[in-house]
Specification:
29% of the residues are buried. A hairpin with a 5-residue loop joins strand 4 and strand 5. By secondary structure, this protein is of the alpha+beta class. The strands form three sheets. A four-stranded antiparallel sheet has the order 2-7-1-8. Helices cover 22% and strands 30% of the residues. The mean pLDDT is 93. Helix 1 runs antiparallel to helix 3.
């Protein structure tokens, strides 16, 4: 497990992991036009998060990636019965990373998309996200969050250390 770091990054992911990564670029540009992000990627005149942030940037990938806290030790639960599925999730995630399906056979008797599992702290999958780096708070401005919700058709926020 990597050492704990003081720097926090918020990753804003679309709820649908298969949406094109370009939506992260679109969100970045919308937040710039709205004054939350400056032209250089730094803070704009409107506070995006309480206490500010160092910079923001869209990150776009060729294929879907998994985003988590980066610290390990998170819980993964079945969306049906809440049972612990960490062990089968870990195996399924590794299989998915080398080209397998993005599913896990669950003890509840169903097969779940890894996207639908319940993570604590929050984790998710996306082809692109907006990284808000070195944040001083973890709550997005309500209007900025609404922009993300509309554009992303639901937003998942992953807090990453480091």
């Amino acid at each position: 497990m990597p050492p704990a770091a003081h720097r926090l990054t918020l990753l804003l992911l679309p709820m649908d992991p298969d949406r094109p990564g370009s939506v992260a670029v679109e969100l970045y540009e919308r937040l710039q036009r709205g004054g939350w992000i400056g032209p250089d990627g730094g803070p704009g005149p409107r506070p995006l998060v309480e206490g500010g942030f160092a910079r923001a940037r869209p990150e776009v990938f060729d294929r879907t990636r998994f985003a988590s806290s980066g610290q390990g030790g998170f819980s993964v639960r079945c969306p049906v019965d809440g049972s612990n599925v960490v062990a089968p999730f870990s195996s399924a995630l590794e299989a998915w990373r080398v080209g397998g399906p993005r599913h896990v056979a669950c003890g509840c008797g169903r097969e779940h998309d890894l996207v639908d599992l319940v993570y604590s702290p929050e984790a998710g999958f996306a082809r692109g996200w907006l990284a808000v780096i070195d944040v001083q708070g973890i709550e997005l401005d309500a209007e900025a969050r609404a922009e993300a919700e509309v554009l992303f058709e639901g937003v998942r926020i992953v807090v990453r250390r480091g």
